[in-house]
Design goal:
The longest helix is centred in the C-terminal third of the chain and has 16 residues. This protein starts with 6 loop residues before the first strand and ends in a 5-residue tail after the last helix. Helix content is about 45%, strand content about 10%. It contains 13 helices and seven strands. A hairpin with a 5-residue loop joins strand 2 and strand 3. Helix 4 crosses helix 13 and helix 10 packs across helix 11. By secondary structure, the protein is of the alpha+beta class. The structure holds a DNA duplex.
DNA sequence: TTCCAGGACCGGG
DNA sequence: CCCGGTCATGGA
């Protein structure tokens, strides 16, 4: 039974919290022993769980924020109906039903995907967690906000040494400084067309096509972006026509990408790393 | 020991 | 334009 303070935020068909949190788009939601998840976004804490076909959560005064965060105004069934071919994509879309592309904070997304490069997901999570614990704000015992760019900008590479993020430390600092100084302005990016915003974020050191696309998709919710990483390269080579152009997938290409990534990693990847 | 991970960058051909 | 080497780290 939902507790007195919990409300139903979605049904379990339209929002699968396990798939959504584990599909590789975010790094900070934690599974708890009882099957619920707890996470922080924009300095707000949420515990959410599946209960009798519904997704319930204690949203407090932030129901609107979380409704938006989970992108509940988008019809994913209609979007997924566009992924009819090839057969492999159809399989991935069916397998990933319930995944939603979260509307994450731009800075957290940019920083997290800078860390993600040439790295594996468990270690990305460890680095991001350490970053938050060291320089975020403790909102509740053991729960930290993502540190602001202003907080990170004045730090040195040595200050980030405990992260063991390797050569990515300088990239993190460069990005934090660009945001803190206003060289990179997320409000400005929101007003730009995709190509322009893409070019702007790529000016940062350590941000190439792939990281920029992840930022656009997860941080700016440009659902047409199609990040290509090693998993996607393998899947494209194995299951799609030669020289396949993902732009044919249209306005929701990024969602197709997420279905493929999740399927490839959980079904085809021998080890979940 | 070597290979790999949601890459980016730089040099040379 | 494409290619190989390099970057730092930890797990398999």
């Amino acid at each position: 039974m939902p507790t007195k303070t919990e409300t139903i935020i979605a049904n379990a068909d339209e929002l699968d919290i396990c798939k959504t949190f584990e599909c590789g788009q975010c790094f900070r939601w934690k599974a708890e022993e009882n099957g619920s998840y707890i996470g922080v976004a924009a300095g707000k804490i949420l515990r959410v769980r599946s209960e009798g076909g519904n997704i319930v959560a204690d949203c407090g005064d932030d129901a609107g924020f979380w409704h938006d965060y989970f992108d509940l105004d988008t019809d994913y069934v209609v979007a997924s109906s566009l992924f009819a071919e090839p057969e492999y994509l159809k399989t991935c879309a069916s397998y990933g039903a319930g995944i939603r592309i979260l509307r994450q904070e731009p800075w957290e997304t940019l920083c997290s995907f800078i860390i993600s490069q040439c790295n594996n997901i468990p270690r990305i999570k460890t680095i991001v967690d350490t970053l938050c614990a060291m320089y975020g704000e403790e909102l509740a015992p053991g729960l930290f906000s993502f540190p602001t760019a202003d907080r990170l900008a004045p730090l040195s590479e040595n200050d980030l040494a405990p992260l063991h993020s390797g050569y990515r430390a300088q990239y993190i600092l460069d990005a934090a400084r660009a945001v803190a100084e206003g060289t990179l302005d997320f409000e400005e990016l929101l007003g730009m067309d995709s190509a322009e915003a893409f070019a702007s974020v790529k000016r940062l050191s350590g941000v190439g096509d792939k990281v920029a696309n992840c930022f656009m998709l997860y941080g700016l919710h440009r659902m047409d972006r199609f990040p290509v990483d090693v998993w996607m390269k393998r899947a494209l080579k194995a299951h799609f026509p030669e020289n396949y152009d993902p732009t044919v997938l249209g306005d929701f290409a990024g969602l197709a990408q997420q279905y493929i990534f999740y399927y490839a990693r959980t079904q085809e990847g021998a080890i979940r790393n």
